Amino acid sequence: MPRATINDIARQAGVSPTAVSFAFNSPARLSTTTVERILAVARDMGYMPNPLSRGLVAGHVGVLGLIVPQALREIFANPFFATLQQGIGSVCDEHNLGLLTLSPQNNSLELAIARAPVDGFIIVGLNEQHHEVLPLRKRGIPFVIVDGDAEIAQSVNSADEESAYAAAAHLLEQGHREVLILAFDMPHRHLDNIFYGVGARRTWGYQRAFANYGVEWRDSWFLPTQGSVEGGAQRFAQALDEGYRPTAILTASDLIALGVLRAARQRGIQIPNDLEVIGYDDIPVAELVSPALSTVRQPIMEKGRIAGELLVAALSGDTGAERVVLAAELILRETTR
Amino acid sequence: MPRATINDIARQAGVSPTAVSFAFNSPARLSTTTVERILAVARDMGYMPNPLSRGLVAGHVGVLGLIVPQALREIFANPFFATLQQGIGSVCDEHNLGLLTLSPQNNSLELAIARAPVDGFIIVGLNEQHHEVLPLRKRGIPFVIVDGDAEIAQSVNSADEESAYAAAAHLLEQGHREVLILAFDMPHRHLDNIFYGVGARRTWGYQRAFANYGVEWRDSWFLPTQGSVEGGAQRFAQALDEGYRPTAILTASDLIALGVLRAARQRGIQIPNDLEVIGYDDIPVAELVSPALSTVRQPIMEKGRIAGELLVAALSGDTGAERVVLAAELILRETTR
DNA sequence: GGCTATTAGTAAAGGCCTTTACTAATAGCC
DNA sequence: GGCTATTAGTAAAGGCCTTTACTAATAGCC
Question: Are A179 and A168 in contact (CB under 8 A)?
Fold first, then answer.
């Protein structure tokens, strides 16, 4: 049994399809009794106007797209995204929008973007020059970049270089010289230069700190790490097995740091006495675990909220191109001395 | 500048719109050189076929809808939903689908459902008889109910009554007689009878335990509570102010229980010595906090995964109507003696 | 009672794409 | 060299809805 269409309702109610459309969209154009008759028939048959057709003629569907170059499963496991979505969600709530979360499809983010029935995109972790993003620019579809580089497009970022500098400087200041860095693993390697965006800025910050304190920078102590508790635990354990003996660790995210804590506990490494650890993000659990995690706090929810607001403004024709940079601060808890 | 359509590309490439469509969807129908010429023009103009039109003729858009009767902001703040979405997300990843999360729009969930450009729904916390759900049944749009009652539709639930019984029985067994229950606050009050689904089943379980242990059931000790840390903290503090002196507490969710822990700490109440607390869900933080939370573990991720799989099966024509009930178990940690 | 204004509705075009049925041209074959 | 088979494309219909321009009937008015 195929779904009832506007024509079925029209026939059943003895009116034209136009009248059915009016009953839903401009009931004032019809007499009250006709509107009621039409709506009663519609209710009877469970009819609702097809959102796709409606969107096609209206030019919008009331959905924001959130594009992330990681699997949905990982996104929803990551408190960073949960908090970011809270921020975006608060804007959606206000404007009666839905939030469509999208991952690569058949390993192609471009495909996912092309197929998305949305009014605009919030894109996390890509630059405006990425080949997935270019078509949007050419096509004039509104989007906002979060945690990525942008010269032309709108973007929201944190002060990554400064905060990375602060974290590294703190450890070097304490006299640490064997500092291991568990960095992002750049899920998005298809560009010639994988060194962009958040990862690049943080690395510059670290390197600047090392230079300032006269400490040699060793690429071999900079280890790309999968961004999860499991990933952090494994990478740290592996590093130990390979002979690394760090006295301090900087991680690209709190999740990775939590993994380090777990692996350290298993190996009997005392934190912060044997090893100091600084995470990044300040996700809610960071202060709940024991020892409480020292970390760099970035205003994630704010990031999402601003990104949402910029996008909503763009959807209603605002063509400004803001590039917002939010402050981040070092929070010292119990994984540092 | 309006967006390029298939006709613009056709004109520019000197072919018919049909040819452009073929270039994207069935390139074998065209010569290689033509396909390349068309795709080059498309790339140049940032053209991608409009997902709405495509969806309209294809009959599907590759998006699952997740419907929750709470604000998006709250959903993304709630680890229960994060884990549920992880489960659903793993199915989406596998089948190249997006996940559209939807909240009431203008206070109407029905409106949100009507406007959603999706292929099917996962509906959390409503019954199949709710007026929001009825049109989907009549219209034949596939959906799966999670944490709600269903006789006809597909559904995924936990063994709520049994696990609530077990939690209450454990406390009563220990001799507690002043047991406060911080229950769901039923955001969805529009039905005559607000007593349905998860909340109702758990309450039956509690009541059965009270009856079995010969303890009087007092409605006044059953307090609807907003499902967040803040909500739990406030409700508990308010109860104390009103003169309640519970020796044990059962909560509808771990978030509420975490709120109780926080408020208890502020008031100098020792847990578990002065007060035993049992949460519900076993969200990841439950075992990280101190004291670690005793709770009822339900397989949330599994719930999401199964709901996703049932829906995907329904989308490909599987008309079975499974009603899955997952086991839940009492986990005793440090908030019970 | 004849004119204008309003009310209640319809017909047709258009939003953007895909698919089916067709045509024209070339290739293959003995 | 004339037939069939294949290749490369096009025209037109159709997916479901909304909006614009129109018509017909009624109401209002002096």
Answer: yes
Q: Is B322 helix (H, G, I), strand (E, B) or coil?
A: coil
Same domain, A182 and A100: no
State mean pLDDT over A262-291: 95
How far apart, in Å, do the first and last CA atoms of chain A sit?
Answer: 69
Q: Are residues A183 and A271 in the same domain?
A: yes
Q: What is the DSSP letter of B288?
A: T
Q: How many CB pairs under 8 A join A and B?
A: 184
Q: Does B195 touch chain A (CB under 8 A)?
A: no
Q: Which of A46, A56, A101 sits opposite B139 (nearest CB)?
A: A46
Residues from chain B that touch A103, judged by Cβ atoms under 8 A, are: 89, 92-93, 98
* Number of domains within chain A: 3
Q: Is the domain of B290 the same as that of B170? A: yes
Whether residue A249 sits in one domain with residue A179: yes
pLDDT mean over A284-299: 94
Do A252 and A182 contact (CB within 8 A), yes or no? yes
Return the H-helix or E-strand segment holding B323.
strand B323-326
Residues composing chain A: 337
Assigned domain for A270 exists: yes
What is the DSSP secondary-structure string of A207-266?
Answer: HHHHHHTTPPP-GGGEEEE-SSHHHHHHHHHHHHHTT---SEEEESSHHHHHHHHHHHHH
- Cα of A206 to nearest chain B Cα, Å: 30
Q: A285–B285: do the CB atoms touch at under 8 Å?
A: yes
> How far apart, in whole angstroms, are the C-alpha atoms of residue A42 and residue A6?
9
For helices B79-95 and B254-266, the axis angle rounded to 10 degrees is 150
Tell me whether residue A242 is in a domain.
yes
Would residue B57 count as lying in a domain?
Answer: no
A-contacting residues in B 252-311 (Cβ below 8 Å): 284-285, 288-290
A90 touches chain B (CB under 8 A): yes
pLDDT value at position B195?
73
Q: Helix, strand or coil for residue A46? A: coil
Residue type, B272: P
Cβ–Cβ under 8 Å, residues A247 and A277: no
Minimum-distance nucleotide, CA of B33 to C1'? D8
Predicted confidence band at B319 (pLDDT cuts at 50, 70, 90)?
Answer: confident
* Domain residue limits at B132: 63-157+300-327
User: Which domain CATH number covers A243?
Assistant: 3.40.50.2300
* pLDDT tens per residue across span A35-87: 999 999 999 999 999 999 999 999 999 999 999 999 999 999 999 999 999 99
Residue B336 lies in a domain: no
CA of A199 vs chain B CAs: smallest distance (Å): 25
Cβ–Cβ below 8 Å for A139 and B62: no
- Are A53 and B56 inside 8 Å of each other by CB? yes
Q: Which of B53, B72, B288 minimises the CB distance to A89?
A: B72
What is the spatial distance, in angstroms and rounded to an integer, between the CA atom of A18 and the C1' atom of C13? 13
Residues B195 and B107 in one domain: no
Q: B101 contacts in A (CB within 8 Å)? A: 89, 98-101
- Tell which residue, A19, A125, A3, has the closest CA to residue A70: A125
Q: What's the confidence (pLDDT) of residue A185? A: 86
CB within 8 Å: A71 and B93 = yes
Nucleotides of C under 7 A from a protein CB: 7-12, 14-20
CA atoms within 13 A on the CB side of A290: 6
Please check whether residues A117 and A135 belong to one and the same domain: yes
